[in-house]
Amino acid sequence: MGLDNIEHVVLILSGKGGVGKSSVTLQLALSLTQQGHNVGILDIDLTGPSIPRLLNLEDKKVTQAPGGWLPVKVHDARDGESQPSNGHQTLHSAAPAKRGSLHALSLAFLLPSRSSAVIWRGPKKTAMIRQFVADVLWPPNTDYLLIDTPPGTSDEHIAIVEELHKLAVDTQPDPAMNGNTLSLDIGVRPKLSGAVVVTTPQAISTADVRKELNFCVKTQVPVLGVIENMAGYICPCCGEISNVFSKGGGEVMARESNVPFLGSVPIDTGFVALVEGVKEEQNAVNGAPTTNGNNSEKSTELVERYRECGLCPIFAKFATTVDQKVRGTTSG
């Protein structure tokens, strides 16, 4: 089965488009890897995949291997004990920080070009989701698979939840029969640990996201928490936060729906510059040495550059909370 190497699966959901599910997915994944977890990102927004663009890996293609597809590697794991390749230590630490690996898979990696349109009806979308679940060879010891979903509660959502719930029903030898017969054991190793729901503060957004919370109730998906994205704008000059889209709507919605509220995330142009700047830096490194004095790996890898982003501490907190909730849920 394609998810045999996955320990926990977390859905990133929202009933509203444009609330930043993909950026939340990416930053949560980067934060989890910075905490030492091996992470995979599965992008099932089939008609509008964003993860390859955010990762600046649009030119990558999925490799076909015996037994299934190999996801695209974003960065390797690191034990934190080795020194930088040029022999110099960074100004911030004596050795590179420990981190987990990150891999990603998206339909965009299978398309001929970034401008190719996906014009599919429901059955073909469902078949693609099933193939993503069954035929992808994620690396061994992957702690988290974060699934970036499209907005709404449509074919993709129904298909992924249905497939993940199937994995919670496992066949195990019956100890009473000395292993001679099989009995169904519900939830032996639950693959679907829960969902993180993303909203923006406006009432028009929270109204749609309430429907997503209702979807989670009806499909028996635990809600790990609500993130209120775009809650204010950080001025790049003075650091003052202005509430462009109001603030607090996500927290009120979470409280009224009796689900956890993880916190608010302001708009930070530094994150956009970071994502866009990685590719520019990579191109510069290919043609000339970097000018910041650091080694090329340090300067081009998104996971390392993200440590300097103003949103990094916020998502580090989210990652810790999600990890505690997931492990608390599944350990009992």
TrEMBL record:
Signal peptide: none annotated. Residues 76-95 are annotated as: Disordered. GO terms for biological process: iron-sulfur cluster assembly; tRNA wobble uridine modification. Its main location: cytoplasm. Pfam families: ParA. PANTHER family: CYTOSOLIC FE-S CLUSTER ASSEMBLY FACTOR NUBP2, NUCLEOTIDE-BINDING PROTEIN NBP35 YEAST -RELATED. This is Methionyl-tRNA synthetase. The lineage of its organism: Eukaryota, Fungi, Dikarya, Ascomycota, Pezizomycotina.
